[in-house]
Specification:
This protein folds into three domains: 85 residues, Pdz3 Domain, CATH 2.30.42; 185 residues, 2-enoyl-CoA Hydratase, Chain A, domain 1; 97 residues, no CATH class. The protein contains 14 helices and 19 strands. It is of the alpha+beta class and 465 residues long.
């Protein structure tokens, strides 16, 4: 029989006295199940998939058992590397279209180019998959050699390629540019080990202390490593100021403060949040908000302020266990309420509430239909392949008329009023998609930022501070 992973922890005297009886009851039940169940019950299924997860579910949703593959993914976060092929893709229902390939990566060496459409992965036809299945397949495919069936624009014959994933550097910052003269924009997708250093480097490249302001975009940032969050927040706070507090049942209460040797930036800062901003992202936003150092805009954050201690088990498995909670400098509990056992405070809302609530543009039925059809991406491919695209490219009225006909051929036929209302949105989205493929996704994101309601609100308010 395969040995199951074990974790030995200190327990209280009272608990230790009761433990043999509880364990005997468990083994008695397991013995009956193993002997009498209609179907054989493998120990891995009973223990890994049943007993351990069941026990942890009584605590909170974030205390979890990690199988060897999941534990390895967690360790990858600390290494700031990911396996992959080096391509940026647009994922649509049943479709995956390449927007960009990164230099010196498996995708680039295989000759994959913007506009190529991946039709099948390891013989699995993407058009038959639901969105969640498609995303899961793409995630799994980055771990091992894959065979791709690719259709290239203007070609009827499919191209078959075999790619082997490689470890790629995964920086926390995926976008850094001047959103307007003198005002920098940084988008952090996670807080990996080098996030703080990367933020400082990016700020210096944008102008350093000469900047008139900075937009720190933490939307969709699920968090990451605590030291990286503390180092990032310390870039904008005075030496000695509190960054966060930690309190738990058996964890010694402590506070983290800005190092005395810190040299913080002094320009105005705005932090952008949404409902997917969590954990380390909330620690940064909460610290800057409590000290009045940054204006917080967007939507309320997720509310995940747990201290998760990770324990290594045998055979490569692991355990992430909630052992304490994070609090902002003013004592706000970042964690939204989970269960009756959570430490109670006077402020139980959880998450970070923005100073200015701003929501993204609503998705109209027309916009949803256009995006789901992939028409913007495929039409953009045709545009950049038939004409040179430079930084001054504009979507002309003639090109809009051509796209309207293109949509009509695909049975998307808005009325005159609806087309008139959506005309500027279409112009903007078309320009973004053309830039994505012709000049790179980073340039496309710069165009997208020009219509982002949260970015525009931040720019308007930074000027008043």
């Amino acid at each position: 029989m395969r040995h199951l992973p074990l974790l030995v922890l200190a327990v209280s005297t009272a608990a230790a006295q009761d433990l043999p009886d509880h364990l005997k009851r468990f083994t008695d039940i397991y013995r009956v199940v193993e002997r009498e169940a209609a179907d054989a019950v493998p120990p891995e299924k009973a223990i890994y998939g049943g007993a351990i997860p069941g026990m942890l579910r009584t605590l909170d949703p974030h205390s979890v058992f990690l199988d060897p593959q999941q534990f390895e993914q967690l360790k990858e976060l600390e290494r700031s590397t990911r396996k992959g092929f080096g391509s940026v893709v647009s994922v649509l229902p049943g479709r995956v279209i390449v927007l960009q390939t990164l230099p010196e990566t498996p995708s680039a060496r295989a000759g994959i180019a913007p506009g190529d459409e991946i039709l099948a992965i390891n013989g699995i036809i993407l058009a038959r998959l639901e969105m969640e299945e498609l995303v899961e397949l793409l995630t799994q495919s980055r771990q091992r050699e894959v065979q791709l069936d690719i259709r290239r624009p203007g070609q009827t014959r499919l191209v078959q390629l075999t790619l082997t994933p490689e470890e790629l550097q995964s920086p926390s910052i995926d976008r850094a540019f001047l959103v307007r003269p003198g005002v920098g924009y940084l988008r952090l997708t996670s807080f990996d080990a080098q996030a703080g250093a990367q933020v400082r480097q990016a700020i210096e490249e944008l102008g350093g202390e000469r900047l008139e302001g900075l937009l720190l975009d933490l939307r969709n940032n699920p968090g990451g490593l605590l030291p990286a969050a503390l180092e990032t927040a310390a870039l904008f706070l005075k030496p000695g100021q509190t960054l966060l507090a930690v309190r738990g049942r058996v964890v010694q209460a402590r506070k983290e403060s800005v190092p005395e040797a810190a040299r913080p930036y002094r320009f105005p800062v705005a932090v952008l949040l949404n409902g997917r901003s969590a954990s380390a992202a909330e620690i940064v936003a909460g610290a800057l908000q409590d000290h009045g150092r940054a204006l917080i805009l967007g939507e309320p954050s997720f509310g995940k302020g747990l201290v998760e201690s990770v324990y290594s088990l045998s055979e490569g498995a692991g355990l992430a266990l909630t052992t304490a909670y994070y609090y902002t400098p003013k004592g706000r509990n970042i964690q939204r309420p989970l269960a009756a056992v959570q430490i109670q405070t006077s402020a139980q809302a959880g998450g970070i509430q923005p100073d200015v609530t701003v929501y993204p543009e609503p998705v109209t039925p027309f916009r949803a239909a256009v995006e789901a059809s992939g028409s913007l991406t495929t039409f953009a491919t045709e545009v950049f392949r038939r004409q040179p695209v430079t930084g001054d490219f504009q979507v002309t009225a003639a090109l809009l008329d051509e796209f309207q006909l293109y949509l009509s051929e695909r049975r998307i036929r808005p009325g005159v009023t609806e087309w008139s209302q959506e005309r500027e949105w279409i112009r903007h989205r078309l320009k973004t998609e053309v830039f994505n493929q012709a000049l790179g996704v980073a340039r496309g994101d710069e165009i997208e930022a020009q219509r982002d309601p949260v970015i525009l609100a931040a720019l308007a308010r930074l000027g008043r501070r």
